[in-house]
Fold these 3 entries.
Entry 1:
Amino acid sequence: MGTGCLDRRLIMGLVALAGVGSTPRVTSGASSAKASSLVDVVLFGIPPVSEWRSTPGRPTDPCVDRYLGSIPPASPLWIMPLPSTPDEALPHRRRYLAEQAVALLGPEARSEAESFAAAVSLRVEWEGTSEGPIEEADSAARYLAGRPGSLLVPFSDLFQAHRLRAAWEAAAAGGGEDRRADLGRRYRESLERARSASNPLVSCIAGALEWQDHVYLGGVGRP
């Protein structure tokens, strides 16, 4: 994966998919429908579920089948329109995040999922550094700190693990040796909580996250 920031690729990918303007072509694995993994679809949002499910060569395994089967026919994930301008990308991400939480946790989690998606920090750009994904992970932790019995806990753990993995990769790529150990520890803690969740979808996606070569910047190994 290249060194451009995830959020910029997300915005460019969404707008490019919508056919708006002369946005540069996106070539990263996270924005390539053919190469995208279940982790990319759930936690990146590119490509959208509506496109990914019919993509030739997409991953096929019990976890993917369970995930696709968990999305109700009337879910906005099947028909959610792509944003037509870069300014619409962030609101789209928030709604997409909420709908993914509902797909994984069930309709009873909708109210909490929408509150979580509205409150969590989502930066427009990460700039190839670890600060952006760290802030997103920290904001999720802060939101759930006073809600230990929340239905969103397993989804938040998964979200935090993904962002902390991205932050570790950015620190590794940028020579941030002083941050890698702490980020790796925090990633492992969040990942293990997600993997041990009683929700089978959260636990299997967490397992897929662990084995994925990279989520943000490639060529730096795994924490």
Entry 2:
Amino acid sequence: MEKTIKLSGWQAVVAIVIIAIIGGCYYIYMTETLNTDGVEVLQMHLKNEYLRNVTSEISDAMKNPEGKEAELSKLTSKLDKFNIEIVSVKARRGKAPGRDNIYIVRAEIRIDGNTPSESMDIRYFKMEYSMMSGWRVYGDSFAWAYYTSFKFI
């Protein structure tokens, strides 16, 4: 026995509006908060990445150090004091077959109170949580992966 539902006119409009409201609410409320351990791991990843760039600049300047004392002291002072601040963090569960512990994380960052020199103040990362090892950053991700990571119930 086959049942069909025919909606026309105002009934179809009401049905589309209800579906759009439910889908919109689901999309808005599917973001999760990243706990402090996850934020600390992400901050450590960003610090390591930033230090890698500074140390490569120092090694380049050390190849011919004559006349570059001011530049070298400026670069070494960056190593002593720099502050990576994560202004906001949002996470969504990523799509991975059989794995519910993959997250796509959107982070708004500031370095020393300013936007990073690469003008990438909002970055996306792929992270994983394991009960055995805790949080792990796999690396950079993309905005489309964050905004299209639907997790259907």
Entry 3:
Amino acid sequence: MLRLAETTHELLSAHFLLDTGADRTFVSASTYEAAGFAYSDFVGCPMAHAVGVGGSVEIRLVPAQLLLMDDHGELIQLEAEIEMAKPHPDLNLFPPLLGRDVTDLFRTSSTEIVALTDSHPNL
């Protein structure tokens, strides 16, 4: 879950895809819009451009507290700047991506292999 500092909304809950190739944590418009946010909510945050395999997109760097659950069910709170993408039809189907800005803080392990191409239409 994300607690966003720059908005009137309290929490954005989402399932993040661990992306070992992403430098930063990224949230597409479809995710934050489903939670009641709009890109205009982030107008006070710095603008930048995120570059990926498919090109670049305008983003806002939104200060947030990322709430993660550990193996014992305890919440861990991290301060982070999350890339919130400007609405774009090519990105709307992408899930939120947990990037190395967060994953480098932890040891990650997987006990199950999942065929991502079967579970998400853009992969």
